[in-house]
């Protein structure tokens, strides 16, 4: 049974033959919103993501997100419980029924600590980052990349295990770009689908003959780690001030010496933030480093980079 929540029903709906009560709005973006719903059969709570579809292309993209969910059954990737496409006059809505994790996002955790003037300790960062990496490893193993990894797209369950969500920007891991037209098309796509302050440098100005691979996720992973260590992403403030993120990411990131974290973790962060994607490690290497950090006695430096 679901845990008791203080919420008033705002109507009901049906998905794949099951009835659900609409309880409250959890969040919304430019083209979707998420509601808390309760299944009448057993009182369990779910998050219902509703994607607004104005045309066939929107419907295709929503079904792509459904398809991506269907590829995985992994503890660190949010599972899809049910889905349907609903007609709303001339438009459609794609309904995706997802597990409800009451702790919310990794960003909520970081923000709450930052507001208290404190930060995540390394002994919490490492297992969270390990879980994120295991989810990414499963995605990369299928030949895909997430492309929009950020703290608001990582949920935490009751045991503080991270769960990757929002798979709508996922596409093939290795993209071979041939010519200026393909380069501009990929650049435009990235501008729409990859959050600017977590977007890899090679997606800001796509070269006319190049290969973009899954290491765009490694850059974003580095930004997530930086956020956990310092309370905000490395380029969040630049974006908020209206300065050029595209210009800022072309320079090697300086990792502040905080004294809170081991040299090994700081070096790992620096390796993820290499401007040249060919200099960034693959996810298997990062997992190996993190497992070494987790196994090391507290306070012992395990630098192997």
Automatic annotation (TrEMBL):
<dbReference type="GO" id="GO:0016604">
    <property type="term" value="C:nuclear body"/>
</dbReference>
<dbReference type="GO" id="GO:0005794">
    <property type="term" value="C:Golgi apparatus"/>
</dbReference>
<feature type="domain" description="Protein kinase">
    <location>
        <begin position="20"/>
        <end position="293"/>
    </location>
</feature>
<dbReference type="InterPro" id="IPR000719">
    <property type="entry name" value="Prot_kinase_dom"/>
</dbReference>
<keyword id="KW-0723">Serine/threonine-protein kinase</keyword>
<keyword id="KW-0067">ATP-binding</keyword>
<dbReference type="GO" id="GO:0004674">
    <property type="term" value="F:protein serine/threonine kinase activity"/>
</dbReference>
<dbReference type="InterPro" id="IPR011009">
    <property type="entry name" value="Kinase-like_dom_sf"/>
</dbReference>
<keyword id="KW-0418">Kinase</keyword>
<dbReference type="GO" id="GO:0005829">
    <property type="term" value="C:cytosol"/>
</dbReference>
<dbReference type="GO" id="GO:0005798">
    <property type="term" value="C:Golgi-associated vesicle"/>
</dbReference>
<dbReference type="InterPro" id="IPR008271">
    <property type="entry name" value="Ser/Thr_kinase_AS"/>
</dbReference>
<dbReference type="GO" id="GO:0005886">
    <property type="term" value="C:plasma membrane"/>
</dbReference>
<dbReference type="Pfam" id="PF00069">
    <property type="entry name" value="Pkinase"/>
</dbReference>
<keyword id="KW-0547">Nucleotide-binding</keyword>
<dbReference type="GO" id="GO:0005524">
    <property type="term" value="F:ATP binding"/>
</dbReference>
<dbReference type="InterPro" id="IPR052239">
    <property type="entry name" value="Ser/Thr-specific_kinases"/>
</dbReference>
<keyword id="KW-0808">Transferase</keyword>
<protein>
    <recommendedName>
        <fullName>non-specific serine/threonine protein kinase</fullName>
        <ecNumber>2.7.11.1</ecNumber>
    </recommendedName>
</protein>
């Amino acid at each position: 049974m679901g845990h008791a929540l203080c919420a008033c029903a705002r109507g009901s709906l049906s998905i794949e033959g099951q009835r659900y009560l609409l309880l409250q709005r959890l969040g919304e973006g430019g083209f979707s919103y998420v509601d808390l719903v309760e299944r009448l059969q057993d009182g369990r709570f779910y998050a219902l993501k509703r994607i607004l579809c104005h045309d066939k292309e929107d419907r295709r993209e929503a079904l792509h997100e459904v398809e991506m969910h269907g590829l995985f059954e992994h503890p660190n990737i949010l599972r899809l419980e049910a889905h349907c496409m609903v007609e709303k006059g001339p438009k459609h809505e794609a309904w995706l029924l997802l597990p409800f994790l009451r702790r919310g996002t990794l960003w909520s955790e970081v923000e709450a600590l930052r507001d208290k003037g404190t930060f995540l300790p390394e002994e919490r960062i490492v297992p969270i980052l390990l879980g994120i990496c295991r989810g990414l490893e499963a995605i990369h193993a299928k030949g895909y990349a997430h492309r929009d990894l950020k703290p608001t797209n990582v949920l935490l369950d009751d045991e503080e295990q991270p769960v990757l969500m929002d798979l709508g920007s996922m596409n093939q891991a290795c993209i071979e770009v041939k010519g200026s037209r393909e380069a501009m098309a990929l650049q435009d796509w990235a501008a729409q689908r990859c959050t600017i302050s977590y977007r890899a440098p090679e997606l800001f100005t796509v070269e006319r003959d190049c290969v973009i691979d899954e290491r765009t996720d490694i850059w974003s992973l580095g930004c997530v780690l930086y956020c956990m260590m310092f309370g905000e992403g490395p380029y969040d403030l630049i974006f908020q001030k209206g300065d050029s993120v595209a210009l800022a990411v072309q320079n090697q990131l300086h990792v502040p010496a905080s004294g809170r974290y081991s040299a090994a973790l700081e070096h790992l962060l620096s390796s993820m933030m290499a401007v040249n994607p060919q200099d960034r490690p693959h996810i298997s290497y990062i997992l190996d480093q993190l497992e070494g950090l987790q196994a090391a006695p507290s306070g012992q430096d395990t630098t192997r980079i």
